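@channel sequence for tomorrow's demo:
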Amino acid sequence: AKSVIQSGGKAASAFLLGAVSNVPEIMLQLVLALITCFFMLVDGRRFMTWLTEKVPMDNDVRVDLIVTFKDTSISVIWATLLAAGAQALLMMFSFLVLSVPGIFLAGGATFILAWVPMIGSVPVWIVGAIYLYAQGSIAKVVIMVVLGILTGIIDNFIRPLVIKGRNEFTLVPWPPEL
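structure tokens (generated this afternoon):
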């Protein structure tokens, strides 16, 4: 058991060092994304006008493409927002029912982590399960794991429902007639 704990500790420290070493790159990407968002908000219409003039398509096709892209982008953002909210509420409910402290912290962390692909709510419910294990309640650990998996799966139902209900695709004939 001691060697397993030591190897787990070594793996965890290697993971943390790897994650921390990526912080400068992530911060740079975040700053560049914020600058891009700022200038798109300030001068986005002029940029889109310039860009649409450069696209070699008929004007009707170009307009349909832009409208479809805009509608799809809005749908994806709404779907992600609602899925993250549902995951946060379910995780808060799980913490409340299982008497794990930090309900609002768990909900906030779940909401934020739900936007990160391949991570989602997993770190939050693992922390809750570790807490329950330390309290000696194996039955509650099993319930937390089941509710944690359910929290991750609910995302797969909410996103498609929101995107399907919000986005109406129009068929554009291709290639455009000359």
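heads up for whoever presents: Residues 169-178 have pLDDT under 50 and may be disordered.
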